[in-house]
Design brief:
six-stranded antiparallel beta sheet; 12 helices; elongated
Length: 1509
């Protein structure tokens, strides 16, 4: 039986190639199709394949292998079927949005996993087919094909039936997720990409989610950083452009309806640093092709001059500072540019987020984007050429930023992390120079997880030791740290944050190794300790259940009075599961071991113990633990006392200042005695007599000498010094003597002149003895200042004896010319005095001999120090620098030469003005002298150093003027379009016979295979064949037969890396982008995808790809490319569900290419689609009357509430309707759309006005509405604003007197209950009492003080609280105001008393009394008065006296009665009662009318008439 196995990704891919099918099967099917066309029969083309016993066994749910769904087109021969066996971890080519898939997908998966119940049917079918095929051999081929097709159709029907029944049992197929292949941990370099893979089985198909440090990864938060893919059953997470923050633990979590399972992998990102002398370069770049080079000429000289040099600079923390200077290299060769290096305190700087470097080809700059005290130091720019290098240095001082709290200390500096582990790290720092005038009490350490801005304080109390172990870290996460100093006044600003550090066990890091496969290929071999592979042996036993062994090598690594740090090695026997530790302690003198961490075990083999008793001694031991149990304890440590092991250093001594410049002084001191772990020194200066000390440096300096800059010229200064270590700062040294600031003196000697040109070389000069032994001497000399008509080819040496001062005859020391300028003369006599002379030779002949040398005695040199170096020459002379070269001394002394010092002075200065170019000895035999003054002549010398000390100086060089020769050119570096790196140098002043001599590090090029040298005319270049670390160095080029034309270029690690990256860019160019692919919405809801390239030629091409399919320009997709601006855009009218996916723009412009992608999936797509629909709706809404500003409210000054909105696109027919709580608000007048504003005014707004307000605009073009809900909080805001407006209308407080006391009051325009009223007396809140009351009457707010006293004097304040703020009105009730108010109160009070007690008639008397004559009249009234008033009665204003006819009574002082016993007509009249007491009088009037009956009245009239007659 033939079989064909396919990879799972081809079997299920939609573009599966049919060429994988069996060729015989293809032939058979082609014949069958032709036969079918002739017979017009239609049959199915699938056949069921046979099943092996092994596959039947695994089909019951084994996770190892499952049979794929059978393909009925896969029959290879008539007698055989082809089995396609695929792994179980095949996946679907689509994204799942839920835990379970659709029913059809589950059915499709279940077909390949449940054939165990059909084994009997499958076997019987196989036997039957065998017999049928046997008989078919005797039939014709046509009949056999037809019958075979019929069998296929029948088997297909049987298969479908069985599949239907299997679907009914699909619930039995559910199983938990299981990782078939787990992701592996990786260690990679920065800027590389890393990809984690895993495959998962389970039913329903599990959904896989990726986490970083237990935080779900969202690919949309940082587009392009993460790529999560799930194709063909393989789930992957790709991390692009790794940086140090990507060091973390990553988790893949698989979940379905049965449960969840996770697996972990760690990613460690390494940086490029030189370790153990191995220069590690960026391995993620592709190197250019390699070339060879020819050996150079060591005589090639380049002169480097510095113009506009940077000087000593001063800055403050947080400032931006730039250092720069112009560099001129002579000769200036365009293709040979110098290498620019920046150094701080002898350490080369690299570009970072704190430091930026720029070299324009002429100007070099170093920029600090955010100064910190860590940036303080001596900065040196080093310009490297082929002839050496030149340097210029200046100090940068950084002072503390202004403290947030006056008197707070300065910020600590140099925060660094040590000994990082899974759950802790040791943080170290340096103490600040400024303590704010108060001693620093300690420091707080803060930590922050990388990727967040949440800082957490690590220690509750300040620590004085400048080192602290931070615990409680989460394994796999990265952290940064900072430190703050604290004194009695406050806390300092935080220090600069440390570099990120990952909480990982060093043991785990050791098991994760990243090894470059080949230099510059970027390939990484990742190895990891894997668990033992399960074998098929029945005796295989897993190791997870093994109890771990004892920890070993337990030791106390650090002990202070605040904590003790322990470290140990993990046990060898620990299984493959995680291991943890328990730490135990024991106090000296007892055997009682106590567990320090009983609840939380330690994950890493490091632990810091706090809360130990200071002064006591402890022993410690550790136990290992896992799920199988706890190990035996380790060997205990020795007793450790809890105290500081490191003492604060002693104060330095012997501080001596000396003059330097007009603004600086050199301070020296003697080091602190017996100081341990010394960090450095702080120097302070004070103007004599001021008493104010200022720091000269804010970063500790090492050594015993420091130049203090920034001093005031002419002032007297004193200095003091103190030492620093981790334990703290020492006491200050004694103050130095005061010294005036002024420049030191200087001088020089004139420069020599070249002799006239001769055919033969002029004589050499400067003969000196380099070594002397008993019978020989080594001479050295200087070459002639001019070589004559041709190059000097050698020298002849003559010598003569001097006996008793008389010179003898000259003898030849050498017969054959020597090429070196040093020669040993043998066979001399010991203790004999000799003189020497030297002659030079060239093609024109032997020149004149030199003048006789000084007299030298041939004797054995026994000095311990080395002899003088010789052949000291200079090259690359520039206006502010030159390169000095020399050869090693012949006599090395009693030990080998370890280094050299180069000395400099001005040519016309005294010997006392010699100063060293280099503060520390150098091992190289060249040095770049920087900081020269343009136009000044200098001389140089060199001294050798060995263990015994510094030897004799060499002879002086010829005076040289610091100036850049006209036409000087520098070596230029070039990277061509093919990525080839080369150095180029040009010389326009070449003479006949001039040559270009290349050298490396000012020595002959030995390995010619590294470079290829090309010279044409006045231009030369060397091409690097295979750039690598072996090519690091200073490349110099000297042009012979010129006046010192030379230049050099330095290639260090950073420059090489830059060149390699540039080479890669030129080899594989990209279309530069101004912006990546982005999406935005247009006004009508259209979606615009756009990308902008920096440049795009007219031939540039662009493609839009959506989900691997190219998008063409049509009605739906409108694509436009603007080659002038580089703008590429595509506009879609509407965003539909089918448009969810990945959009990619591919650019091709000649050789360059680029692409950018945008993922619109899930919530991102839904939100964009929702926003597009909203924009489209907004556009449609604005076609009719619509709101420009929706309904809002405002409160007027009169406390009324105005509801207003702004409308647009209205016309006369547009109507407006207002609603409140769905009920229309009726208006008498039609609304006027003046200025497009609609308003509704609500007077005296209160709780009854709460509700939902709506305004509707409509006409024939459309309708728009705006709603304002004035409920709950919104209503409360309006009420609060109304209260505020009402409170602001309150009038000033006024004082009013009443008969009860004094009233203070104010008026408001509108009062409502929500306006809270509070009265204060002298800032004391008043409570309501019987004597002091407050209230509101209408719009009047008042405070009544009854019966005021002296205590009631003072200021009274009325506070009106609107719910958010208080509004106060005050009045002063004292002095004249109180006196007047109190007097008026007394007056009103007395008036009230008089009014109350005065005599009065309360009532009882009628106004008119009509009575019949002869009747009795009785009237009674009530009378009041205190004292009891007197009562009198009046008739017609005359007083009445009582008699029998008129009875007057006054009873009980209250009741007055008036009685007429027999009323007569004469009793008619006006009567009055008069009551009177001392407080007043009151009268009550009434009228009495007496009438007579009618008959009696007639009789009376007659009688009256008779009388008249």
């Amino acid at each position: 039986m033939s079989s064909l196995s396919l990879p799972f990704y081809q079997k299920h891919h939609r573009h599966y190639d049919r060429d994988y099918r069996n060729t015989q099967l293809s032939s058979t099917m082609q014949e069958y199709r032709q036969e079918e066309k002739r017979s017009t029969a239609t049959h199915s083309h699938r056949v069921r394949s046979k099943f092996s016993d092994e596959m039947l066994e695994t089909s019951s749910g084994s996770p190892q292998m499952k049979r794929a769904k059978q393909d009925y087109y896969s029959k290879g021969k008539e007698n055989e079927a082809v089995d396609y066996i695929v792994p179980v971890f095949r996946g679907c080519h689509e994204h799942f949005s839920g835990i379970t898939s659709s029913k059809d997908e589950r059915t499709k998966q279940s077909k390949s996993s449940h054939f165990a119940g059909e084994s009997h049917s499958a076997l019987s079918n196989t036997i039957e087919e065998h017999h049928i095929e046997k008989s078919a051999m005797h039939k014709s081929r046509k009949v056999a094909i037809r019958e075979s097709a019929e069998r296929i159709s029948l088997n297909k029907e049987i298969y479908d039936t069985q599949d239907f029944h299997k679907r009914l049992r699909e619930d039995s197929l559910l199983r938990l997720p299981e990782f078939i292949i787990k992701p592996r941990s990786h260690t990679v370099w920065e800027k590389q990409n890393v990809k984690l893979h895993c495959t998962v089985s389970g039913w329903p198909v599990p959904r896989v989610t990726w986490y970083k440090n237990n935080v779900s990864i969202n690919v949309h938060t940082d587009p392009g950083k993460y790529i999560i893919d799930s194709k063909y059953g393989v789930h992957s997470l790709e991390i692009n452009n790794c940086d140090f923050d990507d060091t973390a633990q990553y988790r893949a979590s698989a979940m379905n309806a049965k449960g969840e399972l996770s697996t972990f992998a760690s990613v460690v990102v390494k940086r490029f640093k030189a370790e153990h002398g191995d220069l590690s370069f960026h391995p993620g770049r592709i190197a250019p092709p390699s070339y060879d080079y020819f050996p150079g000429d060591p005589h090639m000289k380049f002169e480097v001059h510095f113009v506009d040099k940077f000087n000593v600079s001063f800055g403050k923390e947080g400032d931006t500072l730039s250092l720069g200077c112009t560099v001129i290299v002579h000769p200036n060769l365009k293709r040979f540019q110098p290498e620019i290096q920046w150094w701080r305190n002898g350490i080369q700087l690299q570009p970072s987020k704190w430091v930026e470097m720029h070299w324009s080809g002429e100007t070099a700059t170093l920029t600090f984007t955010h100064l910190n005290k860590e940036d303080e130091g001596l900065y040196t720019i080093r310009v490297l050429t082929k002839s050496g290098y030149e340097v210029h240095s200046a100090y940068v001082f950084v002072r503390d930023a202004d403290a947030e709290v006056a008197g707070a200390p300065g910020a600590p500096l140099d925060v660094y992390c040590l000994d990082a582990n899974k759950d802790y790290v040791i943080v170290t720092w340096k103490q600040p120079a400024v303590d704010g005038g108060s001693s620093i009490l300690g420091y707080f350490v803060d930590r922050c997880e990388v990727g967040t801005n949440h800082w957490v304080q690590c220690n509750d109390t300040p620590v004085k030791f400048a080192r602290f172990p931070v615990t409680g870290l989460i394994e796999g996460r990265s952290y940064i740290f900072r430190v703050r100093a604290v004194n009695n006044v406050g806390i300092s600003r935080p220090s600069r944050v440390s570099e990120p550090v990952a909480a990982l066990d060093p043991a785990d890091k050791a098991r994760l190794k990243g090894i470059p496969l080949a230099p510059w290929t970027g390939q990484i071999i990742v190895t990891e300790e894997e668990p033992a592979v399960k074998c098929c042996c029945p005796t295989y036993m897993p190791t997870e259940g093994v109890v771990p062994g004892q920890p070993t090598e337990l030791a106390v690594t650090e002990a202070t009075r605040n904590y003790v740090v322990l470290s140990w090695k993990p046990p060898g026997q620990r299984g493959h599961e995680g291991i943890m530790y328990y730490v135990e302690k024991c106090v000296a003198g007892t055997e009682d071991w106590q567990r320090v961490n009983p609840e939380i075990p330690v994950k890493s083999p490091r632990f810091a113990l706090f809360d130990l008793a200071e002064g006591k001694s402890y022993r410690f031991r550790v136990r290992s633990a896992n799920s199988a149990g706890i190990s035996e304890p380790s060997e205990p440590t020795e007793f450790t006392e809890v105290t500081d092991k490191l003492d604060v250093p002693k104060a330095p001594s012997h501080v001596v200042p000396s003059r330097n410049t007009d603004t600086s002084m050199v301070v020296t001191w003697e080091e602190s005695k017996d100081a341990k772990e010394l960090v450095g020194y702080y120097i302070e200066a004070s103007i004599s007599g001021s008493g104010k000390w200022e720091p000269c440096n804010n970063k500790p300096v090492k050594g015993k000498r420091f130049i203090c800059h920034g001093l005031q010229t002419g002032q007297l200064y004193k200095f003091r010094v103190r030492a620093v270590n981790a334990a703290g700062l020492s006491q200050f040294s004694h103050e130095s003597e005061a010294l005036e600031v002024k420049a030191a003196l200087g001088g020089g000697v004139p420069h020599g002149v070249f002799p006239e040109q001769n055919a033969a070389p002029p004589p050499p000069y400067g003969i000196t003895v380099l070594e002397s032994v008993r019978d020989s001497m080594v001479l050295g000399w200087k070459q002639p200042k001019f070589q004559g008509g041709a190059d000097i080819t050698g020298y002849f040496v003559d010598y003569r004896e001097i006996i008793d001062g008389i010179p003898g005859k000259w003898k030849e020391a050498n017969i054959k010319a020597i090429t070196e300028r040093a020669y040993r003369i043998h066979d001399l006599k010991e203790n004999m005095v000799y003189q020497f002379q030297v002659r030079a030779i060239n093609m024109a002949g032997v020149g004149l001999p030199s003048l006789p040398s000084e007299k030298f005695t041939c004797e054995e040199w026994t000095i311990a120090v080395p002899g003088p170096p010789h052949d000291v020459v200079y090259t690359e002379v520039r206006k502010n620098s030159l390169v000095l070269l020399w050869k090693a001394p012949i006599y090395s002394g009693r030990s080998e030469v370890t280094g050299y010092y180069a000395d400099i002075r001005e040519a016309d200065a005294d010997d006392e003005k010699w100063r060293s170019v280099n503060e520390k000895e150098i091992s190289k035999r060249y040095i770049k002298v920087q900081g020269l003054k343009e136009g000044v002549k200098y001389v140089f010398r060199v001294r050798a150093v060995n263990r015994a000390g510094v030897g004799k100086p060499s002879d002086l060089t010829e005076p040289v003027t610091a100036e850049t020769p006209p036409g000087t050119k520098e070596i230029a570096v070039n990277v061509d379009d093919d990525g080839v790196i080369s150095l180029t140098f040009e010389c326009a002043d070449m003479a006949e016979g001039s040559k270009f001599i290349w050298s490396k590090n000012y020595e002959d090029l030995i390995d010619s295979s590294r470079v290829t040298m090309e010279t044409k005319g006045g231009k030369t270049k060397i091409i690097f064949n295979d750039p690598g670390k072996d090519d690091l160095g200073i490349y110099s080029c000297v042009v012979t037969e010129t006046d010192g034309v030379s230049s050099s270029y330095a290639i260090d690690e950073a420059e090489l890396l830059r060149l390699l990256e540039l080479s890669h860019e030129h080899k594989f160019p990209v279309v530069p982008l101004k912006s990546e692919l982005a999406v935005e919405l247009l006004e009508k809801g259209q979606v615009r995808f756009w990308l902008e390239a920096e440049r795009l030629s007219p031939n540039g091409q662009c493609k839009f790809v959506f989900n691997d399919k190219e998008i063409k320009n049509d009605e739906k997709y409108k694509i436009k490319v603007d080659h002038k601006t580089g703008l590429v855009e595509m506009i879609m009218d509407k965003l539909e569900d089918i448009n969810e996916g990945t959009y990619t723009v591919q650019l091709q412009d000649g050789k360059a290419s680029n692409q950018s992608s945008l993922v619109l999936i899930g919530d991102v797509f839904k939100n964009l689609q929702k926003e597009a629909e909203f924009q489209r709706g907004e556009w449609l809404r604005k076609q009719g009357p619509h709101f420009v500003e929706y309904l809002k409210w405002e409160v007027n000054n009169d406390c009324s509430v105005l509801l207003k909105c702004k409308v647009a696109n209205i016309k006369k027919e547009t109507s407006i309707i207002w609603y409140k709580d769905d009920r229309e608000i009726m208006f008498d007048e039609k609304h006027d759309f003046k200025d497009g504003v609609c308003t509704l005014l609500v007077q005296q707004f209160s709780k009854k006005d709460a509700g939902v307000y709506e305004i509707v605009l409509k006409d024939d073009r459309g309708r728009d509405s705006s709603t304002l809900r004035l409920l709950e909080k919104a209503f409360g805001d309006v009420i609060s604003e109304v209260c505020r407006a009402a409170a602001q209308t309150a009038t000033d407080l006024k004082v009013q007197s009443t008969e009860h006391g004094i009233r203070i009051y104010s008026f408001v325009t509108y009062y409502l209950d929500d306006l809270k009223i509070i009265w204060y007396h002298k800032d004391t809140k008043l409570a309501s009492t019987d004597r002091v009351k407050s209230g509101v009457t209408g719009e009047q707010l008042w405070l009544q003080i009854n019966e005021p006293t002296e205590k009631d004097k003072g200021q009274y304040t009325l506070e009106l609280f609107d719910g958010k703020a208080g509004h106060k009105k005050s009045v002063e009730l004292s002095g004249t105001v109180f006196d007047e108010a109190f007097a008026e109160f007394q007056r009103l009070k007395q008036a009230a008393i008089a009014e109350k007690n005065r005599a009065r008639v309360i009532g009882g008397l009628p106004d008119v009394v009509t009575i019949q004559e002869g009747k009795s009249l009785n009237l009674t009234c009530n009378v009041w008065g205190e004292p009891v008033p007197t009562v009198s009665w009046l008739k017609n204003d005359r007083e009445l006296l009582g008699d029998a006819h008129l009875i007057l009574k006054f009873d009980s002082g209250k009741f007055a009665s008036f009685t007429i016993t027999d009323v007569r007509t004469t009793d008619s009249g006006k009567y009055s009662i008069l009551v009177k007491n001392k407080y007043g009088t009151e009268t009550g009037d009434f009228t009495v009318s007496v009438f007579i009956p009618e008959d009696e009245e007639v009789q009376v009239e007659q009688e009256k008439a008779a009388k008249k007659k």
